[in-house]
Amino acid sequence: MHMERNDTGRLSRRRLVAAGLTAGVAGLAGCNGVLGGGSDDGSQNGSQSIGQIGSGRSPFGDRSIDGGTSMSEMPALSGELTVYSGRGEALVGELVEFIDDLYDDFSVQVRYAGSSDLVNQIITEGDGSPADVFYSVNAGSLGTLAEEGRTTPLPDDVLELVREEFRDPDGRWTGTSGRARTVPYNTDQWSASDVPNDISAFPDAERFADEVGWAPTYGSFQAFVTAMRVLEGDEPTREWLQGMLDLGVQEYSDEFLVCQAIADGEISVGFANHYYIQRILAGRNDAPLATAFTSGDAGSIFNVAGACTVDTSDNRELAANFIRHLLSAEAQDYFARETFEYPLVSGVDPVGDLPRIDELNPPQGVDLTQLSDLEGTVDLMRDVGVL
Amino acid sequence: MDAEHSTGANDAASDAEDRSASNGASTPLGESTPPLGLSLASATVAVVVLLPLIWLVRLAFDVGVEEAVALSVRPQTVEVFANSAALVVAVTAASILVGVPLAYLTVRTDLPFRRFWTVAVSLPLVIPSYIGAFAFVTAFGPQGALQRLLEPFGVESLPRLYGFTGATLVLTLYTYPYVYITTRAALKSMDTTLVEAARTLRHTRWEAFRRVTVPQIRPAVAAGSLLVALYTLSDFGTPAIMRFDAFTRVIFVEFNSFGRDLAALLSLQLVAVTLLILAAESRIRGDEQVYGGGRATDRVRLGRWKGPALGFCTGVSALALAVPSVVLGTWFVRGASDVGSETLAFDISYVLNSVGVAAATAAVAAIFAFPVAYVAAHHRGTVATLAERATYVGYAVPGVVIGLALVYLGTSYAQPIYQTLYLLVFAYVVRFLPQAVGSLRASFLRVDPKLPEAARTLGRTPGGAFRSVTLPLVAPGLLGGMALVFLTTMKELPATLFLAPTGFETLVTRVWSAYSQGYFGRAAVPALILLAVSGLSMLVIVSQEGYDVK
Fold first, then answer.
1. What local confidence, expressed as pLDDT, does residue B253 receive?
2. What would the mean pLDDT of A174-194 be, rounded to a whole number?
């Protein structure tokens, strides 16, 4: 099964590399940040070569882009666009500004808030929603919006930029960058071999009593529990949650705090998205913090941040082309360097102390859209007493 | 409305009050029925601020009766209900225990540096409770900053601050100023000759306090406690950070998992609890004193209690102010090491946006509060009472609920003003109006109706008498209420996120943006500026009674 998936991956990579080759030469020749982000030189336009977005330096070393499609190969953007972004401004603001500055007659307004808040907002706004694009941190909220009938299908040539498993089968949304579920652990207390590679082994790992941290109100954690329900069923998931409670799990309000608590030695192991670990390491590279992975289960689910067009938008073409820009080589490289996420367009590799995307062992048989069934998950978690 | 003018007017008022008091006539409230126009205006304000509830009711109906009942009585709901109730009672009681002694010390005693302490113990109100909570967790967590500091001395881990204790501690530290401010105002306007009289009747100091002072300040303490209780009920950030399961946390989880109808149902339960608290406060408030004397005699000498009193003031302000200051300062210093946070760089427009929108809210709240407070102070009818109580409901409902409710109302019925500053200011007014109403109502109560009547007999029109006599007398209260609205508006986050025009950034949205993504360094500057600006408005609250801070 793994082979098959990886083969498909390689196939599409080869195709994409071919497609992006010209772009790589034309667009990325000067990728050393000549046109850094935040430049608001009005004379820029799409015909000029496009450089690396952001500092161009990673705390983990310099790099160059050698895959994907350049923005200069994409349809030019013009008009006004409103993006509701569940991704924070610190993470994507520079990218959005870069795209905005790239075109003279294009302007984008971004509304930043939590992904769930924005989904609630769009649903509550009904026909009166000013949103054109919804940009989210996870597949679950995209799925919810799609299920509510508030999205429109994306054009095929946008969807095809990304491997099939990272987008909606009905084309209602696409992933733009990836996040792996991981097990952060404190290297002063454990070595990699101490951490089980099977998520179901955690409740029985007595050595972790009162040492594990989680963030049950956090969207990514709930997506992980949802994945467990999809893979194992409700009853085993309930037992797993109960087992963790019995073990004495510590609760945090988000996964960045889980990772920080591990780096500080308050606890020694936890459940979190991979990039929080990288972000702490980027700030203090002597932190006793490392990444472990489980294999082929909910603990190693690979979720995506992604985008969709909102059904009430009166400029869907522009909205779709904006999302296309999020899948450009430059944007994908930006995600890798600045947010420490996995690029979803082949040929752009992750940065930091991370395996490549096809070296991960996510579980088979989980359609990311299924992760939108949060209500069932929340009911279950509440039943057990986690929430 | 300059201080000098109102001071003069107030002195005149005191003299007049003394005269009226010497007549021995206790004028009952409600003798002067307010004009119909004012009653109508008051009722209109009440209806307008209750509008957002429409959305809640509509959504809650979607749940269906059976599920609604099942949800309301299941053990988890009962448990969070009990948790919230316990938290509200504990925080309110603790706020009274901290706020009233502080008010007494700074008004009635010879506490050294009283002026300084008056400001210092008010200041915690400018710190958003979620920043306070985070600072406490950072500083006093099991492996927090304090532990690292103590590590050389063999301290491996500190006891956990989380849960009920932590939530109560933090909420008390950042809400007791409501009790402090209202109690202080009452103590200042109190006729202390009564206390002297009680003392000459051989009452001990404590007895004199209990039998004379307590009844006089009780309505004010109740008013402050009401704000504390409702704030505690509606606050989400502190219970979340302190890991305590309060009502708001369950509502938050429901909204986050797209259970909007269940969240709405729970919010309605929250409204029901609010009504209970309002009813309880009405009883405690009891018969209100009329236009207090304000003749101050010598201050109580602390004597050997001076040390403990100073220690108390120092302890409270150090905990409430120093902890977040140090944590924010640390973030500020470490700020440079953040990665990928260029876009969170500081811009002066955030300050202007925050101040502008908060000032507009304060002004609108004052206008809305006027008829409500006036009618409530001069009239005892059902309409008057209901209208005044109605303004408190929005204050007790979490900002996320008011925010979404106005998203619905805005897009459905007011599309042209959706995501404009008009709707945003309206949301703030719905949330914070009671702070202006409470303060203004107390001021109206202190105006002897004989004064405007006297002006009328001297040939003034009702409007003219109001402008020349009543208005100057209530100006300090009005200004205080506005300042209170101003600084709570500066701190508001959830409604801002839902309703601000796209691209409109305030200090708090920047703090949120940086904090929620873990870029604490970038949160420091807007947070510190927020505290500074709010601190200035706090000075207004204190200095509007400045003529007494001698």
1. 82
2. 95
Nearest to B519 among A90, A121, A125 (CB): A90
Contact B236, B267 (CB under 8 A): no
Going by pLDDT thresholds of 50, 70 and 90, the confidence category of residue B317 is: very high
Angle, nearest 10°, between helix axes B3-22 and B450-457?
Answer: 100
Beta A133-136 vs A79-85: how paired, if at all?
parallel
- The C-alpha of A16 sits at a distance from chain B's nearest C-alpha, in angstroms, of 28
CB contact under 8 A, B514 and A91: no
Cα of B165 vs its chain's centroid, Å: 22
The 8-class DSSP code of residue A67 comes to S
Nearest to B337 among A88, A121, A283 (CB): A283
Contacts 24+ apart (CB under 8 A), B405-408: B405/B52, B405/B53, B405/B54, B405/B55, B405/B56, B406/B52, B406/B430, B406/B495, B406/B498, B406/B499, B407/A121, B407/A124, B407/A125, B407/B498, B407/B499, B408/A124, B408/A125, B408/A126, B408/B55
| pTM of the shown model | 0.84
Closest CA to A273 of A214, A230, A228: A214
d(CA B344, CA B513) in angstroms, rounded, equals 8
Look up the ipTM and state it.
0.83
**A186: which strand partners?**
A289
A217 touches chain B (CB under 8 A): yes
- β-strand partners of A61: A58
- A91–B340 C-beta distance less than 8 A: yes
Distances (CA, A) of B58 to B253, B261, B423, B495: 20, 9, 21, 20
Q: Which residue of A has its CA nearest to B518?
A: A256
Q: Name the 3-class secondary structure at A176.
A: strand
What is the Cα gyration radius of chain B?
24
Q: Read off the amino acid at residue A278.
A: Q
Residues of A in contact with B251 (CB under 8 A): none
**Beta strands A269-270; A212-214: pairing state:** parallel
Q: What is the DSSP letter of B318?
A: I
Separation between Cα atoms, residue A255 and residue A252, nearest integer Å:
7
Average pLDDT value for chain A: 84
Mutate which of B256, B266, B497 to disrupt the A interface (most A C-beta within 10 Å)?
B256
Q: Identify the three-state secondary structure at position A289.
A: strand
Number of residues written out for chain B: 550
Nearest CA to A369 out of A172, A192, A154, A199 is that of: A172
Which of A43-52, B415-424, B433-442 is predicted least confidently? A43-52
If one counts every other C-beta atom within 10 angstroms of the C-beta of residue A345, the result is 27
> In Å, how far are A49, B9, B517 from A99, measured between CA atoms?
13, 61, 22
Nearest CA in chain B to A285: B337
In angstroms, the CA A283 to CA B521 distance is 11
- Compute the distance between CA of residue A228 and CA of residue A222 in angstroms, rounded to an integer: 10
- A338 reaches B (C-beta below 8 A): yes
Measured from the Cβ of residue A311, the count of other Cβ atoms closer than 10 Å reads 18
Query: Cβ contact (<8 Å) for A217 and B252?
Result: yes
State how far the Cα of A14 lies from the Cα of A217, in Å rounded to an integer: 40
Q: Is B412–A126 a contact, with Cβ atoms under 8 angstroms apart?
A: yes
Question: CB of B141 within 8 Å of any CB in chain A?
Answer: yes
Per residue in A56-97, pLDDT (tens digit) is: 555 566 666 667 889 999 999 999 999 999 998 888 998 999
